[in-house]
Specification:
Layout (H helix, E strand, L loop, with lengths): L37 E6 L10 E6 L1 H9 L20
């Protein structure tokens, strides 16, 4: 004899991302993928103002540009996509 039980499975899916600074939706492209944005997470250690807390924020590109524009020392930049050009003789 087979005995069966019922289970309810809850699946979490990312449906939207909102910018923590301006509150606007990050948005999706024509294929349904999220547009580029910045996600930061930090687990704070002892002797900090946020002792034992975990913070997570998301910023749209416009708010990220404003934020880094206020930095005394700008973020280090590295070009990820290098276009090689060959001379044809």
């Amino acid at each position: 004899m087979k005995l069966f039980s019922e289970r309810t499975v809850i699946k979490r899916e990312l449906s939207d991302v909102r910018c923590n600074a301006c509150g606007k939706e990050v948005g999706k492209d024509a294929s349904g993928y999220l547009l580029d944005h910045v996600s930061l997470s930090k687990q704070w250690g002892y002797h900090s103002p946020f002792d034992g807390e975990s913070h997570a924020i998301d910023l749209c590109i416009a708010c990220y540009q404003k934020w880094i524009g206020a930095f005394e020392i700008p973020p280090a930049q590295e070009q990820l996509y290098v276009e090689e050009r060959f001379a044809i003789a």
